[in-house]
Amino acid sequence: MPVRRPAACAPGALWPVPAGWLRRLFDSVSCPARQSPHASDPGAFRQFRAILRRSRDRPRCAARPVCVDQGKLVRISFTLNQPLCGFAATTVVGGEGVWVCQRELVGPHDPHLTDRLDKLQDALFSAIPGLPAPSQIDHIVVTIAEDLTATAIVNELQAKAQIKVNRAIGAGEPVFVRDIDDVAAVDLGIEIAPDVAVVVMRSSGWKRSVFYDFTPLDPDGVPREGRLDAVLAKPWLLLLGLPVGAPQGAGSMTRADLMALGVADLERLLGERCEEESKYQELLHQHPWMLGGSYGQVLRHQPFDDSAIPDFTAVRCYDQCHDIIELKQPFLQLFKGSDQFGAAFNDAWNQAEGYLAFTMRQRGYLLQEKKLRFEDPRVLLICGHGLNPEQLARVRERSSVSRTITVITYDQILEIARHFLALVRAAGDRPLPSGAS
């Protein structure tokens, strides 16, 4: 059966908010679905209990543009006729609530990048008078004030990055990507107030990334929190093919040291008997190398549809096709008695089978609409901790019968992580950055 996509509001649609669309705004809530993999809080969703009405209006320039020349910096000023709220994360029809992604960082390897840029072009960039063709744009920064006056700067900025290098470098000496351990901050050379929405698109060679934050356009006028220059360091890292997620205050630690912190975090969570599944999701998102060397990229909460949202989709490094990774908190009771699977295990297994069935039924849709390529997909089901030998044998037996679902325990994940860390330390070199070749 083909996936129904109601015309009222489809996933990924850039949602303008003309007057009257938002009749009631409830308090924001935390949404675990579709969190962005790279920024500190990009991908956070806010739930709007809105009465949706159809509107044919599109954001467009409401007045003639004013170009202000400040030295060599040319700013294009224009006005939108309605605020932008963000990207719809779920399909809804009239009268229903909708999850909206207001703040997100989309990197060069994210399957949603082209779709995001196309919709930003249609809803925002096309309203900028005199904007060059997309192929001619190296970078663009758009700011939008509460009164919908907006400013665009295109191919004019000379950004400066505060980087941490891994060798001694003299003044005037060239710095190569291999010399960079981390990017702490990126200064665009312009001031962006916390009470304005912002869209930043950057390029490096053939790669692009985009960051947007529409939260300041909320009716309640919540200013942006945190340092924008630190957030903008993350797309720079992605464009350079360097890993993101070094902890604050890492200082002069090597990457092996950072990997060791990940191992220590997993040991601590298991030692404290933490039952918060999100903690383990975040840990593996920051340290996907713990899954071994088969995956070049791990993406968090990529929805297949409104009800099928696996914890991770992982890109296999050897054929660029996708697998599914689903995890449960380690301390679920997987067995009843000594060797009989309990309800928690059966529910997790059935969920994994459901994801596989969806990928087989909707393979064309997932490739065309979601940019997810499932060819001979497998599910890695992470669950269980401290199982006895008989229980481990039952788990292996169940996996061998399926051949498309592999169950791996947290103890095994920990052993993989320790082994991988030992190899990196023995080699005396950094691991290959995610997405690099």
Secondary-structure topology with pairs:
Blueprint: E1 14-16, E2 45-48, E3 66-70, E4 73-79, E5 84-88, E6 98-101, E7 103-106, H1 113-123, E8 140-144, E9 149-154, E10 160-165, E11 180-187, E12 197-204, E13 207-213, H2 228-231, H3 233-240, H4 255-271, H5 277-286, E14 295-300, E15 312-316, E16 322-327, E17 335-336, E18 340-341, H6 343-361, H7 363-370, E19 379-382, H8 389-402, E20 405-408, H9 410-427
Parallel strand pairs: 16-19, 19-20
Antiparallel strand pairs: 1-5, 2-6, 3-4, 4-9, 5-6, 7-13, 8-9, 8-12, 10-11, 12-13, 14-15, 15-16, 17-18
Helix pairs in contact: 4-5, 4-9
Poorly predicted regions are: 1-11, 15-71, 246-252, 429-437
The largest β sheet comes out as: 7 strands, antiparallel
What is the first-to-last residue Cα distance?
Answer: 38 Å
Computed Rg: 23 Å
Which structural class do the helices and strands define? alpha+beta
Rough outline = globular
Figure out the total of helices. Answer: 9
- Tally of DSSP β-strands: 20
Number of domains: 2
**Percent strand:** 15-25%
**Mean pLDDT, nearest integer?**
77
Topology as a string of helices (H) and strands (E): EEEEEEEHEEEEEEHHHHEEEEEHHEHEH
